[in-house]
Amino acid sequence: MNIPLDLSWIEAVMLASVRMTAFVVIAPPFSYRAIPARIKAMLALGLGVAVAPRVTPGYVSLDTAGFIGALVLELLVGATLGFLVFLVFSAVQSAGNLIDMFGGFQMAQGFDPGSQINGAQFSRLFHMIALALLVTSGGYQLIIGGLVRSFDALPLGGGMNLADPAQLLVTGVSQMFLSAVQIAGPLIVVLFLADAGLGLLTRVAPALNAFAMGFPLKVLLTLSLGGLVIAALPDVVGSLTDDAVRLITGVK
Question: Which positions, given as ranges, span the membrane (predicted)?
Answer without folding.
Answer: 12-30, 42-60, 66-92, 125-148, 168-194, 215-233
